[in-house]
Task: structure prediction
Amino acid sequence: MSLKANVGMRYQKTNVDIYGLAAPLTSLGLLPGDVTAYAFNLAPATFTSDKNSYGYFLPSLDLNLLVRPDLKVRVDYSRTESPPNNSQLIPSVTYGGRVNSLNAQSNNPKLLPYLSQNFDLGAEWYYASNDYVSVDGFFKHVTQFPVSTVKSITIPGVVDTSDLSRIRVIRRCSRRARSSTVWPPTCMASSLPGSRCCRSASASR
Result:
């Protein structure tokens, strides 16, 4: 019986510079002939940028135990990092929805990569010179998986001339858990005449 081990360690540092075009929202109104549809008045698009930085240790371990000349047991462990898509990082906001269902969807330049801890266990039986039977099992634990959440925003200087009851913002963020619970939002008036905003609460499990 013999044991062969391979151990590795890597530190990966990432610096991110994000650039994009963004058109700020200046005012809201209703479309003529449709009192349930919004007219979104946007300022000219301008370049916007943001930065982010993160680093992680990524170890790996490979153990091979030769129980008999024809029987081998293998155990593997590794930690891997998967960065978010570039389309999720561009700092821009898009607006949509109708009366009583206004929403804005934005990306998150501060998204972190999701991390995966990978475990693998296998056995190989070589019953002939060119033939073998193998059994493998694996387990993967993922953290910081990006999910969508709902939060409130206030847009300074934007006047809502319609009867708006709520505004929702959908933004991706890195969570330690893969699921979240979002309660219905409650609305409150902002300090600007004719404008509205709302607050919502969320919790992760």
In short: Residues 2-204 form one domain. The mean pLDDT is 77. The chain has one domain: 2-204. The longest strand covers residues 46-68.
